[in-house]
Amino acid sequence: MNTLISIDSSTTACKAIAWDREGNALAEGRASYPLLRPYPGWAEQNAEDWWTSACAALRACVDQIDPASVEALGITHQRESFVPVDEAGRPTRNAILWLDERSRSQVAQLESDFGRDALHRLTGKPPSMTQSLPKVLWMLQNDPDAVARAAKLVEVHAFLVHRLTGLWRTSLAGADPTGMVDMEARQWAADLIADLGLSPDLFPELVPPGSVIGHVTADAAHATGLPKGLPVVAGAGDGQCAGLGANAITPERAYLNMGTAVVSGVMSQRYEADRAFRTLYAPVPGAYFLEHVLRGGVLTVAWFVERFAADLAETRLPLSPEEALEAAAAKLPPGAQGLMLVPYWNNVMNPYWDPRASGITIGWTTAHGREHFYRAILEGVAYEQRLVGDAMMNATGARLEEYVTMGGGSRSGLWCQIVADITGVPVVRSATAEATCLGAGILAAAAVGWYPDIRAAAAGMTATHDRFTPEPERQALYHRLYTDVYRGLFPALQPLVDRLTELTDAAS
Q1: Whether residues 228 and 349 fall in one domain
Q2: Domain containing residue 352
Q3: How far apart are CA 304 and CA 307, in angstroms?
Q4: I want to staple 62 with a disulfide (CB 3.0 to 4.6 A). Which of 178, 211, 225, 477 is the partner?
Q5: Which CATH number goes with the domain that contains 343?
Q6: pTM here?
Q7: Per-residue pLDDT tens for 434-489?
């Protein structure tokens, strides 16, 4: 049986999965790596861990199959995380990750120097603390020696491609989330890079997603167990690959990745720049994803469980703390008995693009307990999904027929139903929990000729199950809560929230 392998180098681990022609997982390897927090709000990793874990995951995967059966390797990765490296590809400092929050002042500087709207139109994204761009500026201002010693400045995809092939190349759909690509020219934004005081030569060559980007070297074959000379196929960022792995590649079908961050997107055949979303290259020729990112998705749930429900892990119930809280929250009526939450625990990107934003809860009474707060988190994320989903539909002119969901949060039946009830859009689960890794596999399958093109590969290798349909009575109540309260809540409080952040930042 012929196989291919894809790797997903995520925020916490690298997974390697072998796939057959129907998108069935045949073998898997996984290796985790630490998240470094040297200061509050900072998030870093040793980029060498990306390679070490990729090698371990690949060896574990290859050991379960015939290595000679593998026809290609695909790559997907955590977006926006980047590292400066020397001529040999060795990091000159720790990588700075997408969830790092050190660059608030650099976001403001970029908006002042270049203009928020001008950068948005150029790169598809206004400046935000998720992007690489403000953190590159931070590095130039605060760690210039690391940049001066660098031969290249690379995101995760480029780092792994170099270790695998010896070439300084990366995917266009892996580079564009950095905020440093001219989206219409389909190349690095040379003028922007020069204005920062950098040379375009510092960045790797860009190639289209789904193309063969290089071949596995003898050294990489020895380290990973892969065959020497194996084609390596350019992938895309994890969000875009999740959309492909869900076969969400029409304007009527959106992906909804309920992971550490909640990421959703819908395909557009034309380039759009709108505050309601950010625009990225889709891993399908000539198309774009209009995307929403809520930086605190399952991350907010995990925070709540850690800080307020750790005792539930000590009970003898055959339930995780999340399952126990969900069981209690499921007994509550829609609206959590008057408790409402705006889930900006990690600031907000679209539609407000406010690096000073923080979470909001209103409606507290003595009747509320932690199950109310837990349900309010699930509802707050769903309200946010409606806010941006409506905007994306307005931009494309198409009505969403379903969200295809994946990620850890999608395992919650209650959460999937709440999303369906609040957005009014049916939710279906991807048949695989590893839709992101499958998306990279789909690109590899098309590249080696398993299918005539990427769309055909997506159709042949994906499936869904478990449909959640909006319930009319709950949907009607949620509609009133959304239109009468939630939609205007953050705009009304934004000046006060921003001022609170300014005052407390200055005092810390």
Answers
A1: no
A2: 298-383+473-507
A3: 5
A4: 225
A5: 3.30.420.40
A6: 0.90
A7: 999 999 999 999 999 999 999 999 999 999 999 999 999 999 999 999 999 999 99
